[in-house]
């Protein structure tokens, strides 16, 4: 019965049903056939959004919209373009690097896409980049957010497994840097091969300073937010709200460009984007509940894990399980359902629990890029206004650096564990 | 009958061990007539959703702090109140659904809302952890301290002398690390399994609350079982409750040693920790904030 | 219809403002006045629930539901027509059904309230009801010509 639900969802998705209804139709039928109380439907859909970390999603989307409509984006990207426009794929490099900087503030991939992503995509489109490529870079680089501290998914992982959250957060730093480097390399290759637009000459120092000054108040925002978080002034989710207030402040008082209409339209656009994506999160929670009750992910995982005792093989199998799970479940649900099944046998076989945590979360973030339940993909397609298929095609080259990072995380455990060990001493 | 048993406890926690053992025990005791599938770690939703799910019947049974049922019947929170039990055995006796008058009074009201308490779990005593030595309520004066966002906890943290400050569980480790709050309180099993020793330097063995969790079931499902099945289940849960007390007592000693080994400084009364001062301040605050607790507290105190 | 959309827009903007203001106020209360507001997180979470569901009819109205439409677009015209009709019918049926289920839930949860601030639960279920009922109406209005049925892009 559970498998039928999965198959029905897949078919409806492929046939072009809106994702919400492709999830809801088989889930509702399941509840009816199994004779479960109907109240479960409304309760589960409503409670799924009862999550404080999710609040960061509308907040960062709001920040992105505000910055676009009030002209701050133009200043930032004028500066960035002046600086690196000559580099092949210059703005795309900024896109990747921007995510690394932003990942120090946001603990979730969707927040990164909603906030910085919208800004980056619009700026790249303006400079003549293909929207699908802009979207693909944005989606791929959003995997960095949850690997680099702060990170909501790593905290969830830590609390499910009793692995040290501090160690997990520190362990994410090197993989995030590695992944950034690999993504930038890929951009370089793709941009050179496809002759992406670039500036005609290198900038003069004067030009750089001239472009920097107007962008400065916006560029220092991440530093201010990270500073505020480390000082204990606010938590990551609160930082998202403070960022919104800061952007309203600088665009209203410093730049004097914010009108009431901007504010209004930003809020309205945010409400719609946020609703379009989170209504999927809400219905996915119902779908996840059904899979949990049917114990499908657990059965699937247990049968695969029984195949081997070798730690590396097991880790490889775990990769596979999480990648597939990430295609059907959001990262929190997948962590709650699967990690308690997968972690104990792997740790028993000698896999380091911290390494396993990073591998798991990175996999689940890649699942966000992969249909049918690819929430990152959906949000980017919503923002960039490109079809999911075109986006997927543009994304294909980026699977290479992502999978390469994953391979390093899987097979070179010292790479991940070096920094936490160093700090533990 | 097939029962879905959901809870939010993580791997390795006493409550998780309890649920797994209870499921096994119920199956044996009823000769397989009643099977229980356990869904740990919030797999079927968070606390509020689980309680509503049990009321509705989408989840058959679950367990959590008594206070989580206070939305339905406010007086249930009394069983979580700080400094009310003489020891673990007293706590178990006072929360026994078969014999405790205080619990039975509450249960009658809960049943009207579609939910019934059928057992309890002893999860260990709650202690204070902080990033500086805490010996008296004065040490916490004016400092932000994490309070579970429920009236009872807010009142208790006020009694500690601190400023009750809400922090979401998902952000607790970060908040303790960066100093949004200077301390928190939880059973040792939670402190150890969440590695809070990495973000907290001191542990004050106040034992202010005895964490007894209520095991509850959907009333309609309960009435759908036969008399014999019900009494087998009750018996299993009662045995497991006693085991949980034993487990909590044994593991407390181990956990203290473990946390010391991980670098925490443990403060007991021998080190100048003034538990009596905490008891006095907290009890006064609770008495002031919860006048309705007077009658059930007297009943609880009367339990042998 | 125009007026309704206008009213809805105002509500959505207010909810969004609340999601910014509540956490910000909490940061100020905690750091400046050392007087944290105990229910701030709960209030923010529940503002989010309301925002998502109350805005949903606007999402449907603007044809912004997320879809992967490429495979359908490649199908022969007749088959595409059949799928489009099934999508419209499914959308109306699911929205109506969920709206009905939610109303039934509300009547059973009238006394239920949030743990910290005791905000009555029917408000949130009310938002869920409104979201699906509103979506059902908009889907019905669009029945003959849904704004997104023929697009082969995602939005
Ligand atoms: Na991050
Ligand atoms: Na990016």
From TrEMBL, chain A:
Domain of life: Bacteria
Family: Belongs to the TRAP transporter large permease family.
Compartments, as annotated in UniProt: Cell inner membrane
Name of this chain's protein: TRAP transporter large permease protein
A single GO cellular-component term on record: plasma membrane
Annotated membrane topology: Multi-pass membrane protein
Keyword Transport carried by entry: yes
Subunit structure: The complex comprises the extracytoplasmic solute receptor protein and the two transmembrane proteins.
Biological role stated in the UniProt entry: Part of the tripartite ATP-independent periplasmic (TRAP) transport system.
GO MF terms, alphabetically ordered: transmembrane transporter activity
A Pfam family recorded for this sequence: DctM
Transmembrane domains' residue ranges: 6-33, 45-67, 128-148, 168-191, 212-233, 239-255, 267-292, 312-329, 334-351, 357-379, 391-412
Keywords for this protein: Cell inner membrane, Cell membrane, Membrane, Transmembrane, Transmembrane helix, Transport
Segments forming domain TRAP C4-dicarboxylate transport system permease DctM subunit: 7-412
TrEMBL record, chain C:
Membrane topology annotation: Multi-pass membrane protein
InterPro entries for this protein: DctQ, TRAP_DctQ
GO MF, any single term: transmembrane transporter activity
Main localization of the protein described in the UniProt heading: membrane
Protein's UniProt keywords contain Transcription regulation: no
Transmembrane segments: 7-28, 43-60, 81-101, 121-141
Keywords: Cell inner membrane, Cell membrane, Membrane, Transmembrane, Transmembrane helix, Transport
Domain Tripartite ATP-independent periplasmic transporters DctQ component: from-to ranges: 19-144
Superkingdom field: Bacteria
A Pfam family this chain is assigned to: DctQ
One GO CC annotation: plasma membrane
Localization per Swiss-Prot or TrEMBL: Cell inner membrane
UniProt GO BP: C4-dicarboxylate transport
UniProt keyword Electron transport, yes or no: no
Record note on quaternary structure: The complex comprises the extracytoplasmic solute receptor protein and the two transmembrane proteins.
Family: Belongs to the TRAP transporter small permease family.
Name of the protein described by the UniProt record: TRAP transporter small permease protein
Native species: Ensifer oleiphilus
